[in-house]
């Protein structure tokens, strides 16, 4: 999704636990944060108007509420359980 948005000319900010190892395309504003720790999301959400979000089940409600605050549009994918899809 990130590559498609960048290819379409969108300004993209991506949240990851490991910004140096994320391997995101050039032009993406990479921000450190962790969806299992909602308190780490402030910088990633500052000034956004659209959010594509795939929360983890344990913090999904809190993270969705935080994302809705600044965002005019929120697209939410399925919440994952602890450890699902994690690489680190």
TrEMBL record:
Database matches in Pfam families: NAD_binding_10
InterPro entries: NAD(P)-bd_dom, NAD(P)-bd_dom_sf
Domain NAD(P)-binding: 2-54
Gene3D superfamilies: NAD(P)-binding Rossmann-like Domain
SUPFAM superfamilies xrefs: NAD(P)-binding Rossmann-fold domains
Domain of life: Bacteria
This protein's name: NAD(P)-binding domain-containing protein
Organism the protein comes from: Streptomyces varsoviensis
